[in-house]
Amino acid sequence: MVMCYTFSMRKRTTIWLDEVDRAALRTIRERYGVASDSDAIRLAVRLLAESKRVNVEPESKGKSHQ
Hints:
Layout: H1 19-32, H2 37-51
Helix pairs in contact: 1-2
């Protein structure tokens, strides 16, 4: 059996949230209509990156960080 890893495969990450964070996630879920806390976190990260004009696309293989 051969398994290939691609950028589209998700990795599990654990983060610790307090009640303020959970309230913020509920607000994001209600306001944007996302289905889960994970979706709300991904949306928030991407919106923040976009607002700061940060490229969130995966880098091509072999490309160095600048």
